[in-house]
UniProtKB/TrEMBL annotation:
Residues 34-116 form the Cyclic nucleotide-binding domain. Coiled coil: none annotated. It holds the Pfam family cNMP_binding. It comes from Putridiphycobacter roseus. InterPro entries: cNMP-bd_dom, cNMP-bd_dom_sf, RmlC-like_jellyroll. Transmembrane segments: none annotated. This is Crp/Fnr family transcriptional regulator.
Length: 201
C-alpha cells in the first residue's frame, strides 16, 4: 500500500460512510514528502496551511521555555496527523516546532482542499469533526495528566499507552514530555524496577 492509499484508508477507517470515490478531490491535492531524521516538518512561527499525515516515521512536537530550553509537548507516529490544530484553524503562527525523530514519510493536504472537500462532499466534514474530537481528547488527557497525576503516574501511563514508542525515543525527550529532568526520570525508573523486580535499561 502506497502512502496516499494508506492515508485514504485511514479516512475510511475513521468514517466508514465516506466512499472512496468521494475522496478523489482529496487525492488530487495530496503531496508525498520524504524527511530525514532531525528535519523539521514545521518550524516555530510557521503558519500551518497544511495538515500532514504520517505514513511512516516519528515526529516530536516541542516548544522552548523562557530559558530557551526545549520542552517536548507530544509525539506523532504512523497513521497520525502533524499540525498545531488551533493554528491550522485560526491561521495564526505556531509556537511549536515539529522535528522528525526518524526518517519520515508524510502526506500533505492543504487547508483549502480540505474546506473545498467539505463543501463538495458533506460526509467528509464528519471525518474532520471526528479527527478534531480525537485531537481534543488527546489534549485533554495531556492537561489532566499534569493537573492530577504525579510524574511517576505520567511515566507509567505513557509506558502503557505508548509502549511501541519506548524503544524509539530518547530518555531526554521522554523526561521532557512527562515534565521532569532526565535524572529524575532515571530515579523513577529505578524505583519502579525495584518494586516490580524487572530490569530497566
Amino acid at each position: 500500500m502506497n502512502e496516499i492509499e494508506r492515508y485514504i484508508s485511514s479516512i475510511i477507517e475513521l468514517c466508514p460512510e465516506i466512499k472512496r470515490e468521494d475522496l478523489d478531490l482529496f487525492k488530487s491535492n495530496l503531496v508525498v514528502k520524504n524527511h530525514t531524521k532531525k528535519e523539521h516538518l514545521f518550524s516555530f512561527n510557521d503558519k500551518h496551511e497544511y495538515m500532514a499525515f504520517i505514513s511512516s516515521g516519528l515526529v516530536r512536537a516541542y516548544y522552548t521555555d523562557r530559558n530557551t530550553e526545549e520542552k517536548t509537548a507530544w509525539f506523532v507516529k504512523e497513521n497520525e496527523f502533524v499540525s498545531d490544530y488551533p493554528c491550522f484553524i485560526s491561521g495564526e503562527k505556531s509556537f511549536y516546532g515539529f522535528e522528525c525523530l526518524e526518517d519520515t514519510v508524510s502526506v500533505w493536504l492543504p487547508k483549502k482542499a480540505i474546506y473545498e472537500g467539505y463543501k463538495a462532499f458533506p460526509k467528509t466534514e464528519q471525518y474532520g469533526r471526528l479527527m478534531t474530537e480525537e485531537l481534543i481528547g488527546q489534549l485533554q488527557c495531556r492537561v489532566s495528566g499534569f493537573l492530577f497525576q504525579s510524574a511517576t503516574e505520567r511515566y507509567v501511563r505513557f509506558t502503557e499507552e505508548y509502549a511501541d514508542l519506548m524503544d524509539r525515543i530518547s530518555l531526554g525527550h521522554l523526561a521532557s514530555y512527562i515534565g521532569v529532568e532526565r535524572q529524575t526520570l532515571t530515579r523513577i525508573r529505578k524505583k519502579l524496577q525495584l518494586e516490580d523486580g524487572t530490569n530497566v535499561s
